[in-house]
Amino acid sequence: MVDDREAAAAWAAAISNTLVANFTREKLEQLLGGYVGQLLSGGVGEARQIGRSMVEHDFIASATLEQTLVFLGERTAVTPAQLAALAAGFAEGLRDRTLDQQELSRAAAINTMRRAESAVRASEAKFRAIFESAAFGIVVSGLKGEIIDVNEALLAMLDYKHDELRKMSGREIVHPDDRAGLRELTRQLVASGHDNVRVEKRMVRSDGETIQTHMAISVVREEDGTPPYLVTMIENMSEMRALQTQLVRQSLNDAQTGLPNRAQFLGWLEGAVGSKGPETLALVQVDIDGFRGVNDAFGHEAGNRVLMHVATHLRTVFSEEIAKVARIGEDEFGVLVKDPQDVRSVVALVEDFTARLEEPIWIAQHGVGVTTSVGIVARAARGSDAEDLLRAADVTVGWAKRDGKAQWALYDRERDVHDKERYALAASIPGALEEGQFRVDYVPVHSLADGSVLALEAKIVWDHPQRGVLCPDTFLDQSSNNGMIVRLVHWALEDACRHAADWYLALGERMPALSLDLPPRLCQEPELVAEVARVLDRTGLPASLLRFELHEHLPALLNDEQLDELTILAERGIGLVLDQVNGGNVGVDRLRRLPLTGVKFTGSVVHGLDEGANRVEESASVTLLRWASILKLPLYAEDVRTEAEASRLAELGVTGGQGAHFGPPLSASGVSALLLS
Fold this sequence. Notes:
Blueprint lengths: L3 H12 L9 H17 L2 H13 L5 H14 L4 H35 L5 H14 L3 E5 L5 E4 L1 H7 L3 H5 L9 H16 L4 E9 L5 E11 L8 E8 H15 L10 H11 L7 E9 L2 H8 L1 H18 L5 E5 L4 E7 L4 H14 L4 E3 L2 E3 L3 E9 L5 H17 L5 E3 L2 H15 L1 H6 L3 E10 L5 E12 L3 E3 L5 H6 L2 H24 L5 E5 L2 H4 L4 H12 L6 E6 L2 H4 L2 H12 L3 E7 L6 H4 L6 E4 L2 H4 L7 H14 L6 E3 L5 H9 L4 E2 L10 H9 L1
Parallel strand pairs: 11-12, 14-16, 16-17, 17-18, 18-19, 19-20, 20-21
Antiparallel strand pairs: 1-2, 1-5, 3-4, 4-5, 6-8, 6-11, 7-8, 9-10, 13-14, 13-21, 14-15
Helix pairs in contact: 1-2, 1-4, 3-5, 4-5, 4-10, 5-6, 5-10, 12-13, 13-14, 19-21, 19-28
């Protein structure tokens, strides 16, 4: 749901430089907030009233309307029909404002004529100035239709010369089908006690072209008994409606690429999922990879060329006969395919499009490559939801980007449901922390030589009220994405250090080391060293009894400054253990920067030593462990499942092990029973 105050503030920022009205920022945002609420809760009628209200509050600049339509179309859930209605209301408001001003001019003219006996020359001069300089057409005519006078604006509107019109009847310039109605309306006006009436009638130009006009007809009755005459002010509605059409078109199209914009694309989607839509549809979302990098490296003009490059190939591959293409974001395009033959045909079109992008575009002396990540959603059209379709496409693009970019991905409902659950878990972490749903369990690391406890690895466990006990793998990855992992690990570090400090008071030098995973997100925190120091100071745990486990790929993810932070921790006595080593490329050149105090192996390296293991896997495990012994560091193993694995690991120089073979994780009270009994 859009927040009215936030939307009003953003709207005010978009139009503030275009206003001629004198508003404080507070009053402007208050007014626009009311508009937003009416638009989101109302329909076309409310949108039209808002357009008129804008004019009433002196929002009369064309730039104000343009920025308003762009903002509402791209940043809110306002429909294209509401945008068109708002523009129509704005145009009507301008028209009525103009006509009201015209009425003032007419009244001044009539009053001037009535005072003719006392100030003939002055009044004639004033009336003539108004008459000739008016931007709208004016004709003075008798009751029988004879033309007495016309101004230059009317001559230009109908493309006649002055002498030509003076010889014509007023009815001759009115469309034949409207003459009888206009004559009857004039008769009723003269016979009534009213002085004016407004009506829309068609007129005919000298070349035969018909134009739609809005007429304000006033009857002038002289006090001396002179027969009354008519003053008619005429506005060309064809021009006004053409302007309105142009404004609507501009509000529904992207100025840079010429493609329809997000507002129009949403309209297509809403039509496609209606009862009269196609049986099936495919929604394709295309995101340009590294678009911001192109802008930063070569400037926004280069970015515009990239946008045009992608838009051109999309138009070529997804022709109008096949699909509709729109630009729906800064670097995002949407394609709607109605009744596709099958999913494979859509994939073929996507692959044709991506293949065309393989040719680089040249910016100055640089051949810049352009790649895209593409999400494809194919489903039954009728009964679907447009917003849900867009969300599904956006999610699918995210999968393509996470899988390496420069590729396409197909929407998978099961994967989406699984991701939603993970996102929901991550989002609810703050509340769970407040309610005390988290605890720290400990996995003992046992000596493979004598079975003693060498270390205690702290693991964050979530006692979820609905889903039961959740292990860290269930929620830690997603909490890294939304930043909650920082708060969670800080809490776990302090809780584990307090427990370890209590055990240290009882055990002294026999106290095992406390080990804790240090996720990459924590290593990027500028206050990492200071936070660890504060925790150790508050809990009283010696730094020498704390060690952090680093994922094997972590060193390659950090910059030099972040690697230096880890080095400072090591210099203060905190151990650093390389974790999750599974036989891949560890990046030895980066490891040399870190003063490691141990290496921990897992996965196939450990399981390759079990009885009956594949000979090739066993050979690889033995080779890797023998190579690791060259590092002259303690070696550890996790996920040890059997006695055979433990024995072989000990033979190959591994110091300690943990896993199912040594028993399940322990609570804090379980550790106390183990260590202090």
